[in-house]
Amino acid sequence: MGLLTFSRGGIHPPENKISAGNKIEKAGLPEQVIIPVTQHLGAPAKVLVSKGDEVKTGQVIAEAEGFVSTNIHSSVTGKVLKVDKFPDSSGYKRMAVQIQVEEDSWAEGIDTGEEVVESVDGTSEEIRNKILAAGIVGLGGATFPSHVKLMTPKGKKAEYLVINGVECEPYLTADHALMMERHRELTIGIRILMKGLGVEKAIIGIENNKPDAIEVMQKAIEGENGITVQPLKVKYPQGGEKQLVEALLKREVPSGGLPIDVGVVVFNVGTAYASYLAVQKNRPLIERVVTVTGKSVSKPSNFLTRVGTPASFLVEKAGGVPGDTAKVINGGPMMGKAVANLDIPIVKGSSGILLIRETEAKRGLVQQCIRCTKCVSVCPMGLEPYLLMTQAEKEMNDALEQDKVMDCIECGSCSFTCPSSRPLLDYIRLGKARVGKIMRERKAV
Question: What digits encode the pLDDT tens for the residues 121-153?
């Protein structure tokens, strides 16, 4: 019997895990940080500080505004220089807090020690409240507030917790490094999430190209009731939560639905580790592991980075911008997005900074669709990307909605495989944005 995987579509892009095996390094503190108050899905947090205020590391500087929202904390100690709108990785200006870094004095009540706290105390509600207070969000990229995920909707029942250790995006190795070096804390974090959800079974899915992580995590869970490690076939986008649920449990999440509709809740390994720090150490989410990599980067690295750190600071730590760099990607090459400059701040959802060489960054000449249907065969959601692109281009919003454009997980498999170099995902993203807005407006009426 072969390794488990999802049944529909998928591709095998070059893995390019250049920084695999490199230990996590502390990036250190920059001179200034810019901390956006929108680092999560849902409502922006409400700013609590003003220009001139002195803040400490771990202090709440913006509080959750509404049910789907979460707290934002200062990642440094220093003086607030400005509360204003600053460009994010997409180029849009978002409200943020700019802080001049002075030292690293943590707020009271936060355990900054390295000693592992084993015993998981407290009720499910207390765990959820601590995770809310700490500003924990999904660190796999979606940045959905984690306390909301722990609250099973009425009429639904969580049976399984799935921990996503797949990291199928080429180049990125932050999750791999975390499993290798923080496996004990990660295991306790899984127990915390199990207790928060009220489930007795958890599965850690890891692709088979990480045999060292599989071995380490299998040893880490020895003696743990209900937690298993499942090696998976290497196939992109195995890390998509719907694909992962199908691969591990043979349960198909319905169109427009969520894993909880089939009794499953999915968290990234980084989220599980952050949950450990929140519940056991009272430590808010103010730093994360970020991969800085590229084929010409002199020192590909996995940096433990404070939120708000300029991307330029990390790139310099990795040896600077290579001379043949043509494009800088926030994230990985498949699902990441190009950035205009390196002044963007690292946020909770930042998994990597990828510097792509000119020979790799150049797009092919866009040609007419030849109806080869390669994009259809590789789509893991069973969509027709060539059709969705045309509909998006012509602003056929009703047709886009009918043909389930909102089911697209933006994995980029269609663009990767297209022999005519058509910008399928670019147009589908535009279509999704328009249709999503229409659906939200309709719901609000």
Answer: 999 999 999 999 999 999 988 899 999 999 999
Query: For the chain, what is the mean pLDDT?
Result: 95
**CA 123 to chain CA centroid, nearest Å:** 27
Compute the average pLDDT of residues 6-18. 97
Q: Which pLDDT score is estimated for 92? A: 86
* Predicted pLDDT of residue 142: 83
CA distance 282 to 110: 5
Q: What's the pLDDT at 412?
A: 96
CA distance 358 to 328: 11
Q: How open is the CA angle 289-331-142, to the nearest 5 degrees?
A: 80
119 is written with which tokens?
A: 């015993």
Q: Does the structure show a pLDDT above 80 at 1?
A: no
What's the CA gap between 381 and 241, in Å, rounded?
12
Burial (Cβ within 10 Å: 0-12, 13-18, ≥19) of residue 15: middle
CB 327: neighbour CB atoms within 10 A? 16
Q: What are phi and psi of 84, to 5 degrees?
A: -160, 180
> In terms of CATH architecture, what is 1-23+116-362?
3-Layer(aba) Sandwich (3.40)
d(Cα 378, Cα 250) in Å, to the nearest integer? 19
Q: Which amino acid is at 398?
A: D
> Is residue 222's pLDDT more than 70?
yes
Write down the domain spans for the chain. 1-23+116-362, 374-444
Integer CA distances (angstroms), 323 to 327, 330, 357, in order? 11, 19, 9
Q: Which residues are CB-contacts of 21 (< 8 A; sequence separation ≥ 6)?
A: none
pLDDT at 445 over 80: no
Q: What is the DSSP string of 309-368?
A: -BHHHHHHHTT---TTEEEEEES-TTT-EE-S-TTPBP-TT--EEEEEEHHHHPPPPP--
Asked whether 236 and 334 are in contact (CB, 8 A), the reply is yes
Residues 6 or more apart in contact with residue 440 via CB below 8 angstroms: none
Angle (CA) 41-136-434 rounded to 5° is: 10
0.90 exceeded by pTM: yes
